[in-house]
Amino acid sequence: MLPVSRTRYAARARRHGARATLALAVLLALPGLGACRDSPGDSVLIRIATGSPTAVYHAFGESLAAILNRELPNVHAEVMVTAASAENIRLLGAGEAELGFTQADVLPADPGPDPPVVAVARVYDDLLHLVTSADSPVHTLTDLQGRRVSVGAPGSGTEITVRRLLTVAGLDGVQVQRERLGLDDSVAALQAGQIDAFFFSGGLPVRAVAQFARDTPTRIVDLGEWTAPLRQGNPEVYVPRDIPRSVYGIDPVTTVANPNYLVVRADLPEAVVREVTRLLMERRSELAAAHPAAGRMSPRAAIATSPLPLHPGAASWYRASKP
């Protein structure tokens, strides 16, 4: 038995040694850290742009930040509360965040040969919710005509998707009284009778919608018929997806879905992004405990990030893992 034990010990030692070497490479590659590697107290900030505190991006980001802080030496990851997708892309492009989440439909159809923001992974699909009270006269999308509706916060992916949806439904212009509220304010406004309905695009389940449905008789409006018209102008993005009864305990519907990506500044070092990608994929069960949407990731699906290219560090990890 002794030779087997020594073999196993040697294999473990090689694995630990390889990880230590890679961790050191990550540390030296991080911006500014190479110059202060003799000062072990210094740390590098990785800011993760998320969204509303009660939405999926934030829960996912909090869990990811905890993993990065625990497993990458001298890295300090923190979560930023934002309006979500569009603002996240702006923050990364301006160098005010390192990682962020975005819906695919927020991205330019042609990001160009040298985009400032690239992809780490496709993480899950967002489903568009049109939420109203159960006794509301709003049963279809076209019933929104003349009504007060929250279309999402300025800078959110929800607002972009809803703008396109209302246009294809002939409800653009002044057909709908639009309020530009975030998720939490939308819920509060609907509860107070200040709006007739609200939109929100998020992974299942959206915590704030689930809480509203527990407290108030609720209807989610079926939007399935609008997927095809939306796809005519955006063929690579929108797909129909179901919200089953089991999610919110109310009547099931079909709605419009589009992919979500974890994106990164293109100038982040390859070794750093490779480690972020590894932890994103290897800690899926931990991320799923923070929100079920994170558990739907897989290396095979993660590489489908059109129109954005993968960051070289992410591509390197996927090639090595053969998704």
UniProtKB/TrEMBL annotation:
It comes from the Bacteria. InterPro entries: TRAP_TAXI (IPR011852). PANTHER family: SLL1037 PROTEIN. This is C4-dicarboxylate ABC transporter substrate-binding protein. It comes from Micromonospora craterilacus.
